[in-house]
Each structure stands twice: as C-alpha cells, then as structure tokens.
Amino acid sequence: MMYTVIALFIGKVASDYVLSGFDAKKAVNIISLRSIEIQKKIIEEMGSSATVFEGYGGYREEDKKVVYVVLRSQRILYLKRLITEMDPEAFVVVHNVKDVFGGTFFATPVIEHTIGLSAKFDDYEEDK
C-alpha cells in the first residue's frame, strides 16, 4: 500500500515536469484587507513584482484590492506562508501559467546565449 502511494506521487511529479517543463510558473490572485501590505512584502522579501488592481466583492458589495503576482512554482509555498502569516482570512487563487515574458521574467542565460537574446533591443536600429 505504501509503495503504491509513493509510486503514484513520483509519477505525478514526473508527469508535471514533462507537461509543464522544469520552469513552471503560477499566477496568484490575492484578495485581502491587507493587500497593499502583502504586495510590499512580496516585493521586499521575495524580490518579485506584484500588481494591485481594484476589485469589487459581489457578496459583501464592497471595494477590494486584488494583488496579482506570477512566480515560479517552486516559490508558491513560500508565498502561501507569507500570506497566511499576514492575513489568515485572505482569499487566494493559484492558476497554472503556460508562458510568461517581459517584466521580471526573462529567458534563462543559457537560452539567451544560444538564441542571441543577450543584446539589448536598443542596440538594433530599425531598417529605414
């Protein structure tokens, strides 16, 4: 019985890596009364960017601030701990993300070197 559970777990982890790659990302929506504080902690402690936008709660009919952040999946557990410590009542939704580019997400250095993305776009002049 225990070997079956372990084998299923290993199979799930392996299939996740095959399907989503080794650099899977997650998008997280955080709705909290402490959204601005959470956003600042994400920036300070995790070194990641976060976007705050206005929302409206349909049940309580009140304005809300929603924090939106995209992270590598390995960092989600840390984010969950951070949110839980700051606001145990926060409503958090985690989404799988297929592709991210721009902002704080760049190609890995190996890929940059391989496909020549290490030069800045400003270095190229448009054809006239």
UniProtKB/TrEMBL annotation:
Record's keyword terms, sorted: Cell membrane, Membrane, Transmembrane, Transmembrane helix
Subcellular location: Cell membrane
Positions of the DUF2179 domain: 49-102
Annotated source species: Natribacillus halophilus
UniProt-recorded name of the protein: Uncharacterized 5xTM membrane BCR, YitT family COG1284
Topological relation to the membrane, as annotated: Multi-pass membrane protein
GO cellular component, one term: plasma membrane
Alphabetical list of Pfam families matching this protein: DUF2179 (PF10035), YitT_membrane (PF02588)
Gene3D superfamilies documented for this protein: 3.30.70.120
InterPro entries to which the protein is assigned, alphabetical: DUF2179, N-reg_PII/ATP_PRibTrfase_C, UPF0750_membrane, YitT
UniProt KW Transmembrane helix keyword: yes
